[in-house]
Amino acid sequence: MNPEILRANEKYVDNYTRPDWSEFTNLVIITCCDPRVDPYGQLGLKNGQAIIIRNAGGSAVDALRSIVVPQYLLPDNNCEIAVMHHTDCGLSKVTTDQIRELVKSGNPGRDDIAAMVDNMEFHHIQDIEESVKNDVRYLAEHPLILKGTKLSGWVQDTETGKISKVVEAMALS
Amino acid sequence: MNPEILRANEKYVDNYTRPDWSEFTNLVIITCCDPRVDPYGQLGLKNGQAIIIRNAGGSAVDALRSIVVPQYLLPDNNCEIAVMHHTDCGLSKVTTDQIRELVKSGNPGRDDIAAMVDNMEFHHIQDIEESVKNDVRYLAEHPLILKGTKLSGWVQDTETGKISKVVEAMALS
């Protein structure tokens, strides 16, 4: 990382107030790691207020471990989980098979790499509203998500920053 | 999510300038989803500047899919990857086995749930510097991480906000 980042961290430390767990709103957000997605800004959240899980596409399947940990470790495990996918996502422009082919064609003769990617599910997004609904349904039906957990699914428009609710549900298992 | 968050999003939209991919610094940060970890503030980053992957503990193993996607999909795949774990992490206070027992004791008689958690690796952290080094080594040696990718490992002190470099490496495969 460049020296600017280290200087920025020095400034941050000078003005730092450690957030307290009492500021936590019980909100768990699952969203994409895309640089243009800023969950703090978009939702007016401050450091300390939400658990923010980010992965390529904002996949709830990929996030499962990171949801189970706070749901079972936090003293008050009454979390609310919001799945948020965004327009213009890289994973809406390719399929898992196409990513596998890209990796294989970049590594000719590497049977080990071919075997690895053929075993990986990249969670591509065919239709953004459907992918949000599918992810919320996955959590609603998953036995590891605590029964009664409030769930919601959102789309964020990367052009405007606007979030729109697609679905609401409750964990059933 | 509460109405305050929706009002905050309306304000955000009013003042939104869509970040451009030209602002991306090629930095990929893997860090924890803990509410007290704020990668933007800590590193002085603006929306658009970094890919930010977050999961419980900041596990590089868990983040693999989300690294492969940008490394192979972005036109300039010369990413630099920083793994950042933090002090006082929930996953440094338990082991994978203890989480499995917690889940099982919360769901007596549910053999399906017991089988699921017994198959899950929770990536607990025994020693924070060691866990950062192990994750950087995992990426350095992984055949799916592009050869020559710059890697670094960091610890963030949750008490002070300060980041400290633990290790640097380069992807070898």
TrEMBL record, chains A, B:
InterPro entries assigned: Carbonic_anhydrase, Carbonic_anhydrase_sf
Residue positions binding Zn(2+): C32, D34, H86, C89
Cofactor note: Binds 1 zinc ion per subunit.
A matching Pfam family: Pro_CA
Catalyzed reactions per annotation: hydrogencarbonate + H(+) = CO2 + H2O
Keyword terms: Kinase, Lyase, Metal-binding, Transferase, Zinc
EC number, as in UniProt: 4.2.1.1
Domain of life: Eukaryota
MF terms (GO), sorted A to Z: carbonate dehydratase activity; kinase activity; zinc ion binding
Cofactor list: Zn(2+)
Summary of the function given for this chain in its UniProt record: Reversible hydration of carbon dioxide.
Family per record: Belongs to the beta-class carbonic anhydrase family.
Protein name, per record: Carbonic anhydrase
Source organism: Mycena sanguinolenta
Lineage start: Eukaryota, Fungi, Dikarya, Basidiomycota, Agaricomycotina
